[in-house]
Design a protein that fits this description.
The protein has ten helices and eleven strands. With 310 residues, the chain is of the alpha/beta class. Strands 6-7-8-9-10-11 form a six-stranded parallel β-sheet. A hairpin with a 2-residue loop joins strand 1 (4-6) and strand 2 (9-11). Helix 1 runs parallel beside helix 2.
């Protein structure tokens, strides 16, 4: 039976409620110095505001080594009544020290698999997805290394793989690698940030593969493509791919949080949802926020017992 792995345990896909399919409660990186999401009280307040706007669940795409604060997630989820899904995986190399990456060589797939099945560190919190990243219009050796490890962990557990597409590019290369070379079913791949490169042809080709397309990032002021989102969603829905579409906020800096004066998590439901409903109808938007996330993140989980040959 398909279940979504949350920080409080596995739950039925239909019990997620309204889902922010890509966001961050905690996040730190050398590339975001001074803007870390590392305040548990602020994370709780942000999640409370999201709940007040009608939210029921949040998928945190923060991967290994980027300040996930996994041990804090269950308490915050209980306090706010919002279900939280945690991630394993690895972002682009620029987010890590060379020493940490050296330590992970030869055991990356094992780390991913362990965090999905046993738990993240000593927290006991099990991840519910694997997050990796491509480059700008390319997949370099580093991206191929992380995605190969993600594919191995997928084959061992069934976990979905969520992919950061740099400025929305490289989607078809990612699918060629994950689904073509590494044997990951396309419906187990979630492509993030496709809206940042409003190429309708690429979006349609990605949807035709069976992958999920996340239209995420309305909290990101430096992306000027949100105004084209209704057209992209309409085109994909009219082509028969309404079941492939997800919505997320992707709040990555402290200043972007609603509790600090930014749009934050509630903006997805307070403004983006209303705008899309006016343009596309309530039924389609409801599907994107409630039905599709359960399908995208729901897994018939299997316990890893042997190491894959991928």
């Amino acid at each position: 039976m398909s279940r979504v792995r949350t920080v409080l345990g596995d739950t039925l896909p239909q019990d997620l409620g309204v889902c922010d399919a890509h966001d961050h409660l905690f996040l730190s990186s050398p590339r975001l110095a001074g803007q870390e999401l590392d305040d548990a009280s602020a994370a709780r307040a942000e999640l409370t505001a999201f709940r007040a706007a009608g939210g029921g669940s949040v998928v945190q795409w923060t991967p290994y080594g980027m300040g996930r604060r996994a041990a804090d997630l269950p308490l915050i989820a209980r306090d706010t009544g919002v279900q939280v899904i945690a991630a394993t995986g690895l972002h682009q190399a620029a987010h890590y020290t060379p020493e940490l990456l050296t330590q992970l060589h030869g055991k990356l797939a094992d780390v991913f698999t362990s965090e999905l099945t046993t738990g993240i560190g000593t927290s006991g919190v099990r991840a519910g997805l694997i997050k990796v990243a491509g480059g700008f219009h390319t997949l370099d050796a580093y991206a191929r290394w992380t995605m190969t490890a993600a594919a191995e962990a997928h084959h061992a557990t069934g976990a979905p793989i969520a992919v950061h597409l740099e400025l929305g590019t490289g989607a078809l290369d990612v699918l060629d690698l994950l689904s073509g070379e590494l044997g990951v079913p396309a419906h187990r791949v979630i492509l993030g940030h496709l809206n940042r490169s409003p190429d309708f042809m690429t979006q349609r080709q990605a949807a035709e593969s069976g992958a999920y397309l996340a239209f995420d990032g309305p909290s990101r002021a430096h992306h000027a493509t949100d105004w084209r989102m209704p057209d992209a969603v309409r085109a994909l829905a009219d082509a028969g791919f309404s079941d492939r579409l997800l919505l997320g906020g992707d709040t990555t800096t402290a200043s972007a949080r609603s509790v600090n004066g930014g749009p934050g998590m509630p903006y997805l439901l307070r403004r983006v949802r209303q705008r899309l409903e006016l343009a596309l109808g309530e039924g389609l938007v409801e599907q994107m926020l409630t039905v599709n996330p359960g399908r995208a993140f729901g897994v018939d989980w299997r316990q890893a017992t042997t190491r894959s040959t991928y």
